[in-house]
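Need C-alpha cells for this chain, all 520 residues.
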Amino acid sequence: MTRFSTVLFLLFLNFFFSELKGQTTVPEIIYHVCQRSFYDSDGDLHGDLKGLEKHLNYLQDLGITSILLLPLYHSVYYHNYFPIDFEKIDPEFGTEADFVHLVQEVHRRNMKIYMDMESQYITEDHIWWKDSYGNPQSQYSNYLIYNGPDNTNPESIIFDLHSLEGYDGTSRQITTINLHNEDAKKYIYDLYKYWLDPNRDGDFSDGVDGYRIDHMMDDLDWKGKLTGLLVNFWRPLFNELRNINPDVKIMGEQADWSAYGREYFESSGIDRLFDFGIKFGISSFDKEIIKQKIDSTLLETPDSKNQLIFIENHDTQRFANDCDSDPAKLKIGATLNIMLPGIPVIYYGQEIGMRGVGGFGAFGNTDGNDIPRREAFEWTTTIDQPGMALWYKDSGPWWEARNIRDNDGISVEEQKGNTHSLWNFYKKLISLRKEYVALCDGNILFIENRNANVFSFFRTTTDEKILVNINLSSQKQKLEYEFLKSGINAKLLLDQNGLAANFDDSSINLVPYGIQIIKF
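Here are the C-alpha cells for all 520 residues:
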C-alpha cells in the first residue's frame, strides 16, 4: 500500500458506514452507586450521604464526572424502591439538608448528580393507601388502582406480586399508582420538579442534574390497564422539566431488556437509555455477538440521543462473575465499557472487580436475593473497618455466602498503589477517553481483520483515528493490516498484556486476552 492509498484509507474512515455513527456526547463518566453500601460516616453500618460526600475525591481521582444514586426516598426496603413517602429522604441516609449540601459540593467540583425515581408503586404505609383502602370516598381513592367497588382489592405490581418480604423479615403490601389520574399525575410531576430546583429560585446549584426512570414501560407491567404512558405520561413530564432547566438529562431503564430503545426515544423524548443489548454482548466474549449488538443498537439510536454503556448494575450479576474474575477478561470488559460510543456507566465496585450474583429466588421470596450484587464497597484489606457499610451483617444467608472477604485483593487499599491493578486500568482508560475526542465523540467503524478471535474497531473524527484491538481468546493472535505499512505515523496509547506492534511488516501481535489501543 502506498502513502497515497494509506491517506485515502484514513479519509475513507470518516465516511464509511455513516449509519454506525457514534452519538455526540460530553466527556461524561457516570458512577452508579448504591449509597447504602458505599461508605458509612456515622458508625451505624449504613452508607449515607455524608459518606458519599466524604469520598468525592476518590471518585474524581478515578476520573468520574457524574454520580447516579439509587432512590433516596423513605422506604421500609433497603434498596428504597416502593416508598412510604416520596417527599422524605430515608433518615438512614441523612436529611434533606445533607442531600442539598452533597449536591452543592458535587456542583462545586463541576460534577453532576442524578436521582433514581420509581413513581409507579407505593406500599401500604403511604398516606394514599392508608386513607383510601376500604374507603371509596377518600380523596385519594382514584390515585391508586383498585379492583372492585369497595377499595379492598388493590392492583398487583410487576410479576403479579401483591407484597414483598424484606431481608429483615418485614413484609409490606404494594400496589400500583393510577398514572392516568390527573391529581396523582400532578403530584408526581411536582415531585420531579421540586428536586430540580428545591428553592425555586432559578439557581440549579442545589438541584439534581437529571433522573433515572426505573422500570419504564408504555403498558405498565403488560396488563393493559395503564397504556400509552410514553406519550401521555412521560413525554409531558420531560417537557415540563426541560422548561424549568433545559440542561436536565433523563435516563430510562426500559423494562424490556431486549429492546433497542427507538420507541422510548421517539415516543417519550427521553435523552438516554441503558444499553442492555451491548451489556449482554460484552459478557458473551463472542466477536460476532458483540458486533451485532453494537450495530443494532446504534442503528436504533436517533441523532442527539445516547445509549448508556455498562457491563453490570444493581439488577444484574457482577461482570467479575461473568468472567470468573479472570484479570485479563475484567480488563476487556473495562475497555469495551469505556471505549465504545455512548456514555460509560461504572457500577460501584466494578473498578476493583467485586463479585456478586443474587437474583430472584436465590434465598426464597425476599429482597435479600439481590444483596449479593449490592454488597458493601470494599475500601480496606479487611472488611471489619470503620466506614465499611455492612448494613446486612449477620442478617441472613446472604451474609454467610457473602463475596467480600479479608485479603482477597478486591479492595481500594490493595489496588490503588498497584500500577497493574484493575483500578489503575480503569483510571487509565478514563483518562484516555477524556484526552482524545475520538474516544468520546468519534464515529465507530468495525475493521475486518480476518481473525475470528480479535475484535477490532476504529473511533474516528476528522483529526483523530484510534484503533482498538481486543483478543477475545485464550490463544496468542496475530493481525495483518496493510494500512500500517509505508511508515504510517502511529502512537501506542495502551498495550495491556500485549506484544509490541511491528509497523515495518504491518503486523500486530496480541497475547491471550491482550488489548492494544493505537492512535494514527
